From TrEMBL:
It comes from Silvania hatchlandensis. NCBIfam families: PRK11475.1. Keywords: DNA-binding. InterPro entries: Sig_transdc_resp-reg_C-effctor, Tscrpt_reg_LuxR_C, WH-like_DNA-bd_sf. This is DNA-binding transcriptional activator BglJ. One of its GO terms (biological process) is regulation of DNA-templated transcription. Residues 128-193 form the HTH luxR-type domain. It holds the Pfam family GerE.
């Protein structure tokens, strides 16, 4: 979602009390963390793979270094949201679809940003942790190797398995995750590789949004 799109969302009465801040790149945002206290960060995941990976890394780092900051992710579609929900134990306070109608986006953001007493633990619930465990160690390793650019023959060599076995594990991972292409598996691998932090601390909500 573009900066213009986010600004439009925050014109609604439910959101116009918050102050929005935009950053042209992750480096600029990260440097600001040393002197600005943010209450909430909204991450709009991009279709560009490298930028999306950097964004996942940033969320992970923020969960460790600034656990009091609310973290909300805007996913491109249902599949991307499902993969984040299934594969990452990192605590998120909100996971919203950019493809939802505008009225729903405003309502969901408004509820999240105005919610001060209750947090959403959907990302670390037993249901989702069970989904994470559905992938075997070999399947997880294959996805992470794929994320790092290894081919199936190279993965087979590194795991000391034959190519047919690796392809079978890859197919099983696709079925379990509900993806139908290598692109979907790469997305899953990126989440496993760049977003693998567990955060069970209770966040503190502040009153002003900066993103």
């Amino acid at each position: 979602m573009s900066a213009v799109g986010l600004k439009h969302l925050f014109t609604s009465p439910m959101l116009n009390t918050f102050t929005l801040h935009f950053f042209k790149d992750l480096k600029t945002f990260q440097s600001s963390l040393s002197y600005v206290s943010y209450s909430s960060l909204i991450y709009s995941l991009t279709d560009k793979r490298e930028e999306r990976r950097n964004c996942l890394e940033c969320i992970k780092d923020l969960a460790l270094s600034h656990s009091t900051t609310q973290r909300i992710v805007l996913a491109s579609d249902g599949q991307e949201a499902s993969l984040i929900e299934q594969l990452s134990p990192s605590h998120l306070h909100g996971l919203i679809l950019k493809s939802d109608p505008l009225v729903i986006l405003k309502d969901q953001l408004g509820k999240l940003l105005n919610e001060s007493c209750r947090t959403s633990d959907s990302m670390i619930s037993p249901r989702n942790m069970h989904r994470v465990r559905l992938l075997s160690p070999t399947e997880r390793a294959i996805l992470q190797f794929m994320s790092c650019g290894f081919s199936i023959p190279e993965i087979a060599l590194r795991l000391d398995r034959n190519i047919k076995t690796i392809r079978a594990h890859k197919f099983n991972a696709m079925v379990k995750l509900g993806v139908r292409s290598d692109v979907g598996l790469l997305d899953a691998g990126d989440i496993l590789t760049h977003f693998p932090v567990a955060d069970h601390r209770t966040p503190r909500f502040l009153s002003t949004l900066h993103s």
